[in-house]
């Protein structure tokens, strides 16, 4: 075996630079200085005897061979993650580091209840959390940046396994001034698309809400798109429209301090499924199932 092999750290630098297209951002993602990352890449190029990246003041451009090597580097890093997972799976369950992604329509409402319980039950677990919209979280999972993702289904997250935890019902939310209009359960056909406020694209809750209503045209006619559920609630409280909220957020107190009212949706499937997902075939699958069970108890 050659003694002149690239290090995993050098490959991480290369992949990070390709992902971010900027030396400073890549260095930040790798938790090193820009000079350290640049030096590591120069050492890699010297080792291979190739130019992998063309450097200019404004643009970072990968050479054709640099693109191919970066693609292979991803595979090498993924296999290194599997090796680490095998070692962790052979040890004490739910101990050591675990990188979990959580989507924004779950994180602020479930984590405050979840984290104290996990710390008490699994004191040796070092849980690192990353909040991302579903598409980004699933991409991070496939690329090995995350070990598992707490998300809402249905959603196509790639080649993954998952454990369902619970159903999260969706509720119709409206200003108190419209109390007389919505006395009981609200059928989807009663929702005025001209008043509907939804989350912007990238949030799977938008798709789940439209699916629950079985009215896909609502997405095209929505009055305004918000960046978070808290923003939507404030807009509804100010009489700017109506929206759909998950029960999880309501139970966590998102309506506290507002006059916003809610009613159940009178629909066939007015809910989303909260689940934990991980890469298919992961050596830590039993751990993730155990973690999902623990999360289910909290919920």
TrEMBL record:
HTH lysR-type domain location: 6-63
SUPFAM superfamilies documented for this protein: Periplasmic binding protein-like II, Winged helix' DNA-binding domain
GO molecular function: DNA binding; DNA-binding transcription factor activity
One GO cellular component, as annotated: protein-DNA complex
CDD domains: PBP2_OxyR (cd08411)
Name of a matching Pfam family: HTH_1
Record InterPro entries: LysR_HTH_N, LysR_subst-bd, WH-like_DNA-bd_sf, WH_DNA-bd_sf
Domain of life (superkingdom): Bacteria
Keywords: DNA-binding, Transcription, Transcription regulation
Family affiliation: Belongs to the LysR transcriptional regulatory family.
Name of the molecule in the record: LysR family transcriptional regulator
Species this protein is from: Sphingomonas chungangi
């Amino acid at each position: 075996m050659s003694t002149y092999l690239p290090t995993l750290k050098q490959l991480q630098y290369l992949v990070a630079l390709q992902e971010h297209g900027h030396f400073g951002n890549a260095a930040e993602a790798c938790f090193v200085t820009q000079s350290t990352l640049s030096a590591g890449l120069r050492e890699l190029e010297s080792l291979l005897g190739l130019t992998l990246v063309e450097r200019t003041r404004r643009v970072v451009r990968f050479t054709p061979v640099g693109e191919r090597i970066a693609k292979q580097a991803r595979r090498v890093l993924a296999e290194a993650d599997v090796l680490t997972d095998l070692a962790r799976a052979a040890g004490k369950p739910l101990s050591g580091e675990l990188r979990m992604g959580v989507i924004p329509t779950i994180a602020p409402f479930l984590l405050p209840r979840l984290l104290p319980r996990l710390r008490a039950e699994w004191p040796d677990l070092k849980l690192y959390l990353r909040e991302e919209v579903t598409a980004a979280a699933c991409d991070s999972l496939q690329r090995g940046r995350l070990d598992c993702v707490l998300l809402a289904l249905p959603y196509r997250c790639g080649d993954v396994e998952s454990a369902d935890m619970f159903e999260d019902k969706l509720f119709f939310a409206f200003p108190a001034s419209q109390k007389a209009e919505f006395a009981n359960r609200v059928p989807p056909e009663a929702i005025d698309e001209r008043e509907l406020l939804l989350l912007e694209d990238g949030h799977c809750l938008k798709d789940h809400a439209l699916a629950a209503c079985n009215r896909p045209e609502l997405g095209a006619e929505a009055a305004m798109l918000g960046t978070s559920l808290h923003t939507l609630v404030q807009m509804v409280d100010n009489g700017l429209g109506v929206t759909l909220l998950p029960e999880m957020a309501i139970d966590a107190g998102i309506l506290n301090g507002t006059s916003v009212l809610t009613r159940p949706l009178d629909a066939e499937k007015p809910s989303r499924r909260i689940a934990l997902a991980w890469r298919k075939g992961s050596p830590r699958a039993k751990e993730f199932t155990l973690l999902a069970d623990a999360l289910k108890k909290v919920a």
